[in-house]
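User: Quick sanity check before I run a bigger batch. Here is a single chain. Can you write out its predicted 3D structure?
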Amino acid sequence: MKNFLLLLIFLGTSTFAQAQWTTSFHISNRPFVGVNKQLGERWLPEFRVDVDNSFDYTGLELVVNYIFVKKDSYQFYGGLGGRANYYSGVVIPAGLNIYPFENKSFGFQMELAGVVGELSYLRGSTGIRYRFNKN
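Assistant: Done. Predicted structure follows.
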């Protein structure tokens, strides 16, 4: 068991050290934070959690985004995912990440997402995004 735990720690540390991790904060009527790890050049799976409300009304979201247009100063993406706990359903996001500064780690994001489920609605958000280990 000890060797297995050491292997998991080693793999997790090396993955974190070489991966491009990103955090985001989306501002909307239901603000949420996200964490993602870019896989390859185009895939962005992201885990999101609603904030600014009680735990009873906290929604959890997992989306997998694909970057359709990738330039040095912006990215356009779309994806598919799911939402659980509060306002459960399918999530269909499309968004734009903009990195206007010389340091391309910090940027802004805009996203429009359709949520189809127990309550179907269209969610718009803006916010900030920070990329760790950006070369």
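The longest strand covers residues 106-117.

User: Great, the batch can go ahead then.
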